[in-house]
Every structure is written in C-alpha cells, then in structure tokens.
Amino acid sequence: MADNNSVLTVSIVTPDGKVYEREDARLVIVRTKSGQLGIMPNHVPVIASLEVDEVKVKSGSDVDEIAVNGGFVEFSNNNLTVIADSAEKQGDIDVDRAAAARDRAQKALEIARQKHDNQEILRNQVALRRAINRIHVAKH
Fold first, then answer.
1. GO molecular-function annotation terms (predicted)?
2. Exposed, middle or buried by CB within 10 Å (0-12, 13-18, 19+), for 88?
3. pTM of the shown model
C-alpha cells in the first residue's frame, strides 16, 4: 500500500452506522452547497454542507458511487468523513423502490402545487430529488 501522504481514508456514516469505508482513495468528488469539490491527498482542511447528490470515490481504476442525501463533509489530515442522514452504496440501491418513491413524490408534488401548499411543495421536492439521485447512482 502507498504511504499515508498519497492516499485518503474515506468514511461515510449515518445515524444507523457506517455505510462506506475505504483506506486507499486517490480522489473524492462531492457536491457541496457551493458547488462541486474534488479532494485529493494533502488537500487543505475543509468542512462543507452537502447537496443531495452522489459521492464518487476513486482509487486507481475503481470508482465507488454512493447516493448521499445531504449532510456534511469534513476533511483533514487525509481523512475524509461524510456525515449524512442517509446514504446508500450503488449496489445496495433498490431501483424499483426508488422509482416508486419518485412516482409518489411526483404525484404528491402535483397535488401540493394545486393546493398552493408551499411546505408540502418543498417537502416533496426534496423527496423527489432524493429518489432521482438514488436512481441515477444505481444506473451508473
């Protein structure tokens, strides 16, 4: 294995526990509230809020994709930690379940728009983004 200064240790955790861990990553790509961020070994320390999006972890020719539903990323000393409400590795995503969640969110969003219920509109927009993100990650 390469020395500790040329690789990243990556952990993704949720309230239910650790979802993902890798100790030999060369690049991690996340989407923060400020835009896309690529982190390589020896990057300056970072703390940022995450969007609902995928986290890509690259090591050599391997690329792992994890659907993350918001949260935070913290990086220092070549250790990157994502803390999220929920996260799923690409191979663990049930596409049929995600598609059903997308359809439910779309229907509920349309009803909320007809009723001009802004809270329900926002809630269902988030649910829709999460479902679409899971489908997107699963199909890569």
1. ATP binding; proton-transporting ATP synthase activity, rotational mechanism
2. buried
3. 0.84
Match 């999460």 to its residue by tokens: 130
Q: What is the CATH number of the domain that holds 60?
A: 2.60.15.10
pLDDT per residue as tens digits for the range 61-106: 999 999 999 899 999 999 999 999 999 999 999 999 999 999 999 9
Specify whether the CB–CB gap between 68 and 54 falls below 8 A: yes
Using CB atoms within 10 A of its CB, is residue 35 exposed (0-12), middle (13-18) or buried (19+)?
exposed
Q: Which residues contact 2 (CB under 8 A, 6 or more apart)?
A: 24
For residue 122, the enclosing domain spans 93-138
Q: Which amino acid is at 13?
A: V
Q: How many domains does the chain have?
A: 2
Please check whether residues 84 and 105 belong to one and the same domain.
no
Task: State how far the Cα of 134 lies from the Cα of 140, in Å rounded to an integer.
Answer: 10
